[in-house]
Amino acid sequence: MSAQSLHDLTLAQSGQQLAAGQTTSVDLTRHALARIAAHSALGAFLHVDAEGALVQAAAADARRAAGQALGPLDGIPIAHKDIFVTRDLPTTAASKILQGYVSPFDATVVAKLKAAGTVTVGKLNCDEFAMGGANENSAYHLARNPWATDRIPGGSSGGSAVAVSARLVAGATGTDTGGSIRQPAALTGITGIKPTYGRCSRYGMIAFASSLDQAGPMARTAEDCALLLQAMSGFDERDATSAQQAVPDFVSGLRTPRAGATAEQPLKGLRVGVPKEFFGEGVAAGVLEATKQALAQLQKLGATLVDVSLPRTELSIPVYYIIAPAEASSNLSRFDGVKFGHRAKQYTDLADMYRKTRAEGFGPEVKRRIMIGAYVLSHGYYDAYYLQAQKLRRMIADDFQSAFQHCDVIAGPVSPNVARPIAADGGRQADPLAEYLADIFTLPASLAGLPGMSVPAGFGEHGLPVGLQLIGNYWQEGTLLHTAHAFQQATDWHQRVPASLA
Ligand code: GLN
């Protein structure tokens, strides 16, 4: 082995080494499993399948030895957020209510990544039913930020972010309803993209807020995100909201020069919209500074900065925290002790069984959302809350379309702050309202259904990572990935690793 350890390899590099016969899938998988075990205190995983992973790895090596034509991800270990159902591994959505549940089928995204030859090493920690932004709502255990283990990694895809930033695996799946790929990616210094709503199938992704939920990849580089997204995307007849949209070649798109670009100015002609509402008060000084430096870097690469406005940015918080709980209250009604997972041991009648099962099975944040959701949908309040929120959602989407008249991508911070310390009492004492407010910059793109990305952009307060958010118009993931790739060719923020985790 060269100076580079196996865990330093990106997905793309692993693929090249496998193709060149410099490593094997079994070596990569053994190495990943050993590193996962060595860093189990980070809490990234809810379930590790060492035995199954090694069987898959041996099969990948056999395919290669037989001379089969293999895709770029074949034989590479990855892991899935425990929101995706898996046939061979338990799926809990980090909830007690699904403890011990094993699905009879694989989520489409999981099936597609398996078909691409990836090796599944396990299931990743997250907030219960993906509700949260700190991974403190996992019913099982905390996930810790590898940059400072007394701090949150972000959420809800916190385990995915920890696994990738600690280089336990080079790539992972995540889901993003209101920021759950972008925010943990930003707080741990990795790259993640939430595609356009409808790009990836939601079949087998445990539903939180169906009109917002999207799957997406988390990895260290834009190139690796492109490789994963390529495999994850595409129409699925089993998801009625999956789009009949052609999937472009994201990987070769990274290197396809823009019209008019030069070697020094690969982003020449790209208009980057800078919404003034994303740079106001409430953003930490270090985050603001790193974000501005990143914008200057885009300019150096040839992009032009354009002032734009997203006037309803603040309203995205109440709008999201009405719509998402409303949908959650409906989606989570299926967890009643009859068909899935946990059932209360002692009860008097059916209603009592429902009540006790749900009281025992759901954590406090999930209960809070079910109650808010039931309230805003109830007769008498529906028009005042839910209907009003839907109207504003449309206006938020329209604001983006006005902005995109003047620019090709929109750029700003992902999160107003760097990773905060884990709350008292093992994370249980976090302030829910403060959590909701910190979603301000990721919610607008989610409500509009637009693709959004987080790209490592330096360090802010306490030397902790900062992410640059790039938002594109519908189906423009290719533009985001291309822009991020150009940025990563000129910067090395995405290559920085926590000092304690060499
Ligand atoms: N933090 C947001 C919430 O708590 C977003 C979560 C997500 O995207 N799954 O709902």
Task: Give a structural overview.
The protein has a single domain (3-265, 271-312, 399-501), classed as Amidase signature (AS) domain (Amidase signature (AS) enzymes), CATH 3.90.1300.10. The chain is an alpha/beta fold and 502 residues long. The strands form 2 sheets. An 8-stranded mixed sheet has the order 4-6-5-10-11-9-7-8, sandwiched between helices. A 3-stranded mixed sheet has the order 1-3-2. It has helices at residues 11-19, 25-38, 50-65, 108-115, 158-165, 182-188, 222-232, 250-255, 285-300, 316-331, 350-361, 364-377, 383-403, 432-437, 443-448, 477-490, and strands at 45-48, 77-81, 119-124, 171-176, 191-194, 214-219, 271-275, 304-308, 409-413, 452-459, 465-472. The chain is globular, with a radius of gyration of 21 Å. β7, α9 (285-300) and β8 form a beta-alpha-beta unit. The mean pLDDT is 97. The protein has 16 helices and 11 strands. The longest helix has 21 residues, at 383-403. Helix content is 37%, strand content 12%. The structure holds glutamine (GLN). Residues 130-133, 156, 176-180, 208, 324, 439 line the site of glutamine (GLN). Glutamine (GLN) is lined by residues 130-133, 156, 176-180, 208, 324, 439.
